User: What shape does this take?
Amino acid sequence: MTYRAHSARYDTMQYRYSGKSGLKLPVISLGLWQNFGGTRDYPSAFEILSLAFDSGITHFDLANNYGPPPGAAEELFGDVMARDFRPYRDEMIISSKAGWGMWPGPYGDFGSRKYLIASADQSLKRMGLEYVDIFYSHRFDPVTPLEETMGALASLVHQGKALYVGISSYPEKQTRDAHRILKGMGVPCLIHQPSYSVLNRWIEDDHTIEACGELGIGIMAFSPLAQGILSGKYSKGTDGTRAEEKNSSLRRAELAPNILAAVDKFEAIAKKRGQTPVQLALAWVLRRPEVTSALIGVRTIEQLKDNLGALANLSLSAAEIAEIEAATKGALLDHRPKF
Assistant: This one.
């Protein structure tokens, strides 16, 4: 049966401009980081992706190494694009990245021109695309000159392989430097993708968020639920959760008693608002005008619907913000980029 997008797909989603650009993004974007690897079958993947698009989520975020195994998420998304999404390509923002380890040897990691250009070509091939809308430097490389990394991004724009470029997990100084270098090459730095949540505020602590606002760079906040911690599911134990997986990126220290106690208080605040903690977590991230979109990751349709429920109430009063501050005091995670 041929997929036809829902006629009312733009009726409830909210959109924000990315910094000082003309590009609007949905306030909730869908990332394919850990949930669309080689074990995900087409029907279940399409069920989630099509509901997302039917609900106004126009932005799908990928990277070369998303899986597992690396490349699997882009291959799966490429299948969906070829079989069902192709007629809607011009209604979608599709992004990819390079910067983390992808293939053996000295040319498959970090920020060299060799790696970024080759990786972009591979990503386009896996997804069956002529271009991506956004291509990111996935992390700052302390060895490669930043001029080389940004020059590679600018080349992708000039070659028509990316419409826009951005950076991910860059601290304030490197964010300012990247913006300056790209501007000198005639290419704007459209967006910054850092981790950001009520439990993880490194972009506030080092003033990266203010720098983005000043420079006109949009923010795509990833892990707004602190990898699921803010959903409250870990307060009930870790059995059957991602924390039990062999290669989980969630550290046990992040499930310490003080963290879980703060999450319980956070959940109580959400309940008073008639929301789930997931919905409150998204509202908290999106309270900042510098944040263009919250990047979610879901495993199930039910999780996607829970996230979308945040759209019903994204407003937070000063009293609610103060209550959240008190509830999470002394329970913040340190996710500052390390290089």
Remarks:
- The domain at 15-227+288-313 is CATH 3.20.20.100 (TIM Barrel).
- The mean pLDDT is 95.
- Residues 5 and 54 are 6 Å apart (CA to CA).
- The first strand starts at residue 15 and ends at 17.
